[in-house]
Specification:
Layout lengths: L1 H18 L12 E11 L4 E8 L1 H4 L15 E8 L2 H6 L8 E3 L5 E5 H6 L2 H9 L8 E5 L3 H6 L8 H15 L8 H8 L5 E11 L16 E12 L2 E6 L1 H10 L6 E8 L5 E20 L2 E17 L8 H28 L7 H8 L1 H7 L3 H7 L2 E11 L7 H9 L1
Parallel strand pairs: 1-4, 1-5, 5-6, 12-13
Antiparallel strand pairs: 1-2, 2-3, 7-8, 8-9, 10-11, 11-12
Helix pairs in contact: 5-8, 9-10, 11-12
Family: Belongs to the GerABKC lipoprotein family.
Subcellular location: Membrane
Keywords: Germination, Lipoprotein, Membrane, Palmitate, Signal
Length: 409
């Protein structure tokens, strides 16, 4: 009986082994080139695709690791050209000993000329191929995308990963610029307003940091930096929003996670200064309204803040001072909203989601408005209703200037 059971178990194991699939399509690590960032440029006739490829063996020596030969570049950048984006990518097989692996690609940087030409083909590539991910962050640059990929970064060996971390950090801590993945860009350019935004990245400084020699000093001559907001209409770029206008757009898009405002203040002696208020949380509702057959919008914004710094000699727990801070915060947020709304109307571009909200609330009227939404949006005023509440005033109920003035007396 024991022998019979053993034979049965062996047969079952053989049966299960025959049913399991092996790694018939496996790809070894030494057969692929891991791409951390991609650049897209347009030269007027052809697409130029640039790749930032990781060199794993060199990463440990970037900042002067072990080895007598000194630090080596952890990345290599090269470009290919083609009539289409996929055509350019296929040309990489003629000059790379390894197959490009895009699953770990963190960002795609698009040059200004490519943005002006249109990004529909790029979006099509990302949604048509399983090797690329729609969660890749999209960045715009006023120059060429390749130059951005060639730059090294402080505190980050692989700049492709560093660019992704920068935009996530900015979105989390200041909310001036949003993180726009490829799928979100696709949703916005195909939405009711057919408008979208893309954050800008550029080289700030006197020269490039494309050589590791730049890191031999305590300061580097230039760095990658986030800047303005590229505004898209359909799939083409039509202009820029300043950082101040971008923050106002973030409020209207209800994407402010944490930010700050600087409010003017004045003490009892007439001395002027500034109070810096951290925005702990914020929520916005943009509501379309129809009155006398005219469309308007109301932005209901609820903000909670905490005082970070005060340069005015004032007792911060006096009701009048707290009320003044809240009113100042309301005025600053209102100015941001109005500037962003005005800029959107100047560019004839609704990047605030107003079209979708109007479509849902007034589906019958949308049949007419949707045919000429740019003109309808351009004539629609915005009213802001802001609630600004100070939740905390910090550890001290008096500013340092206030305590100094009292001691002098």
């Amino acid at each position: 009986m024991m022998r019979f059971k053993s034979i049965c178990c062996a047969m079952l194991l053989l049966l299960f082994a025959s049913l399991t699939t092996g790694c018939w399509n496996r790809i070894e690590l030494n057969e692929v080139a891991i791409t951390s960032a991609t650049g897209i440029d347009w030269d007027g006739n052809s697409w130029i695709v640039s790749y930032q490829v990781v060199i794993p063996a060199a990463i440990s020596s970037v900042m002067g690791g072990s080895g007598g030969s000194g630090p080596k570049s952890p990345i290599i950048v090269y470009s290919t050209k083609g009539k289409t984006i996929r055509d350019a990518i296929m040309h990489s097989y003629s000059e790379s000993p390894r197959k490009l692996f895009f699953a770990h690609n963190r960002v795609v940087v698009i040059g200004e000329k490519a943005l002006q030409h249109g990004v529909n083909e790029l979006i099509d590539v990302y949604f048509r191929n399983s090797s690329t991910r729609e969660t890749v962050s999209v960045l715009a640059t006023p120059g060429t995308a390749r130059r951005i990929l060639e730059q090294f970064m402080q505190l980050q060996a692989i700049s492709g990963a560093g660019m992704k971390e920068i935009i996530l950090s900015e979105m989390k801590n200041t909310s001036i610029l949003p993180n726009i993945p490829v799928y979100q860009l696709a949703m916005e350019v195909t939405g009711d307003a057919k408008s979208a935004v893309v954050p800008e990245i550029f080289v700030s400084g006197t020269e490039d940091t494309s050589s590791l020699d730049s890191f031999g000093n305590t300061s580097i001559p230039s760095k990658l930096k986030l800047g303005r907001l590229a505004v898209m209409k359909d799939d083409k770029m039509i202009g820029w929003m300043s950082r101040k206008e971008s923050l106002g757009a973030s409020y209207l898009r209800d994407s402010v996670k944490q930010s700050y405002v600087v409010v003017p203040c004045e003490d009892d002696k007439g001395k002027k200064g500034y109070d810096t208020i951290q925005v702990l949380k914020s929520s916005t509702k943009v509501i379309p309204k129809l009155k006398n057959n005219k469309l308007s919008f109301t932005a209901e914004v609820d903000v909670t803040g905490s005082l970070l710094e005060s340069t005015c000699a004032q007792d911060l727990y006096k009701p009048g001072v707290i009320q003044s801070l809240e009113q100042g915060g309301m005025a600053q947020v209102n100015a941001l909203l109005q500037e962003a709304w005005k800029k959107g109307q100047q560019l004839n571009t609704d990047v605030f989601g107003a079209a979708e909200k109007t479509h849902r609330k007034y589906p019958k009227q949308w049949k007419v408005w949707g045919k000429n939404w740019d003109e309808v949006f351009k004539q629609a005023p915005l009213e802001a209703k802001i609630k600004f509440r100070m939740a905390r005033m910090g550890l001290s109920n008096k500013s340092f200037d206030y305590l100094t003035d009292k001691k002098e007396k």
